[in-house]
Amino acid sequence: MKMKADKTRRATNEKSSTKRKDTNNNCAADIKAIIEISPNSNTSNEMQTQANRLIKRIRTMVWIIIIGLSLSGITAFPLETEIAWLLHNSTSYPDILRDWLTTIYSAIKTTNTNFPYLSYGTDWLAFAHLMLAVLFVGPLQDPLKNRWVIEFGMIACVAIVPLALIAGPIRHIPLFWRLIDCSFGVLAIIPLGICYFGCRRLESLKPYIYSTDVVDETLTGNATK
């Protein structure tokens, strides 16, 4: 009986020793993986600094888009008042622009006087711009997770050009005004492009961004145990 108990105890000790070795091997493999992700602290710090700069630049560009969309939406509500103000200060405008604004003001004033419900359409246009501005809050908070919003904005900028050039003549919009409409897409795609390529670069820096957090969490966990 004593010999049997000794054998049982010896087998239990061997099993525990094997389990500890496996655990130690797993910990060593995890630490080795972390070291491979973050070769040295200097490189990691440099990459994290670069990532922080990229995030700051991306958020600045997104703010430009949000402000632009918000202003476009807000100014689409009081069209009659705004055009009246532009005409009142149109002495320095080219004749072609002054004539066009006069035509537009006459049409809007007549519409608002006789058919005010038609301006409800431009109210929805303004509302759409404001909602698009809200949409860009996503990449403002997390550019990588919401990069699709930036891609959507770039597609919209490109789509402005064919819309203005096709629908403009049908609606009797002068060529110079169609080009002004196209310029909004051309200008807006610049900050969006900076955001897009910034996100791609940021994607490549993800291992360096999160490596320090992983190491700290691992060390804290081991110390606790």
Any overview of this molecule?
With 225 residues, the protein is an all-alpha fold. α2 (41-74) packs antiparallel against α8, α3 packs antiparallel against α4 (95-114) and α7 packs antiparallel against α8. It is elongated and about 100 Å long. It has helices at residues 2-37, 41-74, 79-88, 95-114, 120-135, 137-141, 147-170, 175-204, 206-224. The longest helix is centred in the first third of the chain and has 36 residues, at 2-37. The protein is built from 9 helices and no strands.
The residue ranges in which pLDDT falls below 50 over 5 or more consecutive positions are 30-39, 211-225
Total strands: the figure is: 0
- Helix content percent band: over 70%
> Rg to the nearest angstrom?
31 Å
Strand content: under 5%
Quote the distance from N terminus to C terminus. Answer: 38 Å
What do the pLDDT scores average to? Answer: 82
Tally the helices: what do you get?
Answer: 9
- Category by helix and strand content: mainly alpha
Helix and strand string, N-terminal first? Answer: HHHHHHHHH
Biggest β-sheet description: none
What shape does the CA trace take? elongated
